[in-house]
Amino acid sequence: MTDNRGDILRLLYEIKEAGASFYKTPEKLLNKIAKLQAHQGDTLMGFVASALESDQPDTRLLDKIIAELNIMAQSMIIKGEIKPVSVSELPGIGKKATEALAKAHIETIEDIIYHLPYRYEYIGESRSGKKALTGIFQSGAIVTTRNRKRMYKAVFTSDFGMFAAVWFRFSAGYPASALKEGKKYTLYGQSGSFSGMESIIHPQFMSESEMGKIIPVYSIPKIVAQKTYIGAVNAALDKYLTDIPDYLPARLEEQYKFPTAKAALLEIHRPKNPYELEMLTERRHPAAMRFIYEELFYLQMGLLYKKRSYERQAGTSLDIKKEYLDWIKGLLPFKFTNAQRRVMVDIFNDMSATGQMNRLIQGDVGSGKTIVAFTAGLVAVKNGYQVAVIAPTEVLARQHMENLIKLLQGTDITSALLTGSMTPAEKRRTKEIIAAGHVDFVVGTHAVIQETADFNKLGLAIIDEQHRFGVEQRKSLIEKGYMPDILLMTATPIPRTLALSFYGDLDISVIDELPPGRTPIKTSSVERIEKVYKLMREEIAKGHGIYIIYPLIENSEKLDLKAATDEHRKLSEVFGVENVGLLHGRMKQEQKSQLMDGFKAGKLQILVSTTVIEVGVDVPQATVMIIENSERFGLSQLHQLRGRVGRSDRQSYCILVSGEHISEEANERINAMCQHADGFKLSEIDLEMRGPGDFFGTRQSGLPEFRFSNIVRDVRVLQNAREDASAILTDDPELSHSKNTVIKEVLIRKWRKELQYIEIG
Ligand code: ADP
Ligand code: MG
Q1: How far apart are CA 725 and CA 706, in angstroms?
Q2: Bridge-based pairing state of the strands 606-609 and 358-363
Q3: 111 in the same domain as 151
Q4: What pLDDT score does 345 carry?
Q5: Residue 39: its pLDDT value, please?
Q6: pLDDT under 50 in the chain at which residues?
Q7: Are residues 532 and 629 in the same domain?
Q8: Same structural domain for residues 401 and 490?
Q9: Pocket-testing residue among 329, 331, 334, ligand 1, by greatest number of atoms within 8 A of Cβ
Q10: Following DSSP, what letter does each residue of 516-553 receive, concatenated?
Q11: What pLDDT, on a 0 to 100 scale, did the predictor assign at position 761?
Q12: Domain assignment of residue 436, given as a range
């Protein structure tokens, strides 16, 4: 890209001069912007093209164009940038190796330099019990130990006496043929003792000059030899290290006593001191901490910058009158818990402030998040605004709708459901009344609201969150030109460190208390469902409902469905065909709703279901949750499923059915479920077991990828980074002081896509 920053800056200046007239008659300037096309990115051109299409372009679109120009004007190249050179330029890295490394995301010189060793080999005595000995080979033979193991044993003499080397894996050729009587060898391996003689077990042959060396070990594809790779790393360091930029401002480096980026990389790739290896491996060495801090600092910087710009964005300012609240209290059959009250105070503070609310409500399953969100909705409606309630699935959307209808009974507040299974005519009619402002609460699924809804006066969006769906949803509402307050609810609780990393651009409130009168759910694990038939009979006799869930894994969907169908047949024979229903993903929405209604009304007492999410519903008389093949579910899913029972004062049960031969991890998950009822505790266990990368299932776009940090291990650094970032932004909100220039440039580069709708001033 040629550098036409001058042109961009001139244009921005002209726009500024034009002032309001740019918004009234933008054509002239838009055409100039269009002339930049040859050099510029798609995003800007897309905006300009659609602005030029209409006589009266939307001012928000024009704002976006200006924001985009702003970013372009500022993304100047940071001094000392590494050029994007392919690893194939390095010695020893041929075509095959290049391809294999690319699969491991090591493609450029920069990638190779920042791909740190995961451990080191020290050739010499070390704490790991490895040892090197030099001696003259005397003789070797196959011997049998007392516990009848065969090994090859070689005896050496050295200046310090005799020692032995033993191999448990040996062949006719090795190691015997590698050893010549009377020759001197240096052997390196685990030290031990055999028949009273000092020994080395399974040694490697070394040359004497290699002694005392530290060799880094990298996690790389097998087809690339470590030796070759190390050679490539060294070549990259020799040639390109001087180009490595320092992304951290010097004052932060000093504050934490971090080495510079260049010095740190040398220490990590070519450590000098054996006693530092442990710290390096555990990433507690300042050289490693430096990059962890840098990564987390810019993550928090970006998140906080976004958060602050939401706060600045003109939103609605609502009137929270006491009479509204008294009226709402009158609609509810219960009193709010203290935790719910605390969270509502947070929400009301946001809603009455002029900025835009962006708040995440965290809480365990059944902690009463939904009703808190609906209360916020009622306040918005009382202020004359519309409220969107957005759910990840149609069943959940219906569920919200039913709850709303109950809540709104006897009031003059209106609501409408908008889902994919409506006929086009129904949809059109509903959309019309929504656009005309005749509907207060609009309930629907993500997809439908995204593609169809036009609101008259949208003031609040309540988004049932599922793994950052809600964040996307927020973006799409803004793209459509709405600036509502946003309230996200998490489906299951997530640990604080994860929340800070993934939702650090939002305010977070936690409901850490369950409504009173809940009887703890009894959780146990069994090998076969037959073992709980007795319990099932007793519960059915009491008029209670039972869920039986089957996992549905894509590649074995057919088998899973068959298993559920077989089970349905078997249970129908045992419990009576009229009592057992089967719900699965291939059914029509209408059939599904019918079955759910039957289950809710108590006509069906056993519901066999294949699809997890379809049962995210509230059926208070359901008391038994049986999960088949529970070893195949993740912890948060298991907990979420368990939350479907225990919704009344009746004793509830969760039965985890699993085969005998399950992995150790699956076993740990099941044990954790039996031991803990608290969703936050379980989510921490989950995070520890799986690591942050896999916590949300698949790696989804929008989640930060960490090169250096592990937010379980690096909690402290994360907190420091957030505090530092916050202090810098408080002191210099626009990052306009010269001491913050580096921060601003890195921020723009790293977060360019994410920040595209935010003007960096
Ligand atoms: P969540 O959305 O957090 O999973 P819900 O809002 O669905 O939880 O609440 C679960 C159940 O508890 C609902 O039936 C709801 O009416 C009820 N509930 C919520 N708050 C209270 C409360 N303070 N006291 C008693 N019951 C409550
Ligand atoms: Mg809920």
Answers
A1: 18
A2: unpaired
A3: no
A4: 95
A5: 53
A6: 1-2, 76-79, 615, 697-702, 756-761
A7: yes
A8: yes
A9: 334
A10: TTPPPPEEEEES-GGGGHHHHHHHHHTT-EEEEE----
A11: 36
A12: 337-346+353-511
